[in-house]
Amino acid sequence: MDVLVIGAGVVGLAVARALTLRGHGVIVAEATGGIGNGVSSRNSEVIHAGMYYPSGSLRARHCVDGRRMLYAFCESHGVPHAKCGKLIVATDDLEQAKIEGIYEQGLANGVEGLSFLTGEEARALEPNLVCTGAVLSRETGIVDSHALMLALQGDLESAGGAIAFHAPVARIAREGAGWNVHVGGEEPTDLVVDAVVNAAGLGAQALARATDGYPAGRVPKLVLAKGNYFGCLGKPAFSRLIYPAPVDGGLGTHVTLDLSGRMRFGPDVEWIDREEYEVDPRRAQSFYASIRRYWPELPDGALVPDYSGIRPKLTGAGEKAADFMIDGPAEHGLTGLVQLFGIESPGLTASLAIAEDVAARLAASV
């Protein structure tokens, strides 16, 4: 097949790579001038183990499988990463019940390397931590997300695929058994391909509505959940990632580390109605309160605004978190079309498994 993948984030690149390695002719259309300039450039770079998501969901399956694939890919391609582990901590009885549920969910999802620790056992690993109990996840890690995307791009191009930058897709229409894709930009053009994969992240819903013949009722709502991050001045207090019990819309204000050991906190959850990325320094007040539940010794003035990202959610505040939505020909009835909606966390971890899923759905439709 000749396939157009729309979006050069980590998922779009992984999908394009998988299709190219299967012998298909693949072009990635990217609206900006580089790879990973959207959702993929603004995350915590965590490799998730897979214990948070309902058993049998796409998020659970693709996170667990994708994590195993991702570690192998990083090893084989020299992508910087570290399996540093993490502690999910409780500071009261309600949070204790939450993390016990996460532990049981992880076992049900087939997550390896999980242990339930007492507060004393957790503090033996991380002396600066204060908690009543914790779940230790040995398979959680961190990755250089841009190096990962460069490696995916390298495989894609080595196998004959290509990326067209500054190539925003304006509309998609049926043409015979294939698709006519109108690409805007400085040099507008029409491409006729056998298949299209919509991996446009925050723009996926708008693109789906610009796809002739795709049922409007299948396009889910887009809910923007901004996550703010604050850097932390001074020497890192922890050697592992530290996560509190989850909150509505996210996994709580947690400690993440980069590969140089720098410590930062976030993301929080800020429900917004337009795309904007400025970090309000006043949000540090709520960060101090959240963090000091498990690290009371956080010094005053230690937090500085860092960056933010936006999760392309399908559900809003107070609603049950939605699963990934991978809408293929078997679901909507149009051959050669796969729409990806709501690919938020753990999308980076799951990217290689999502790519295999998309490739299989396209193969089954032609």
TrEMBL record:
Keywords: FAD, Flavoprotein, Oxidoreductase. Residues 2-361 form the FAD dependent oxidoreductase domain. Its cofactor is FAD. It comes from the Bacteria. Transmembrane segments: none annotated. SUPFAM superfamilies: FAD/NAD(P)-binding domain. Belongs to the L2HGDH family. This is NAD(P)/FAD-dependent oxidoreductase. The lineage of its organism: Bacteria, Pseudomonadati, Pseudomonadota, Alphaproteobacteria, Hyphomicrobiales.
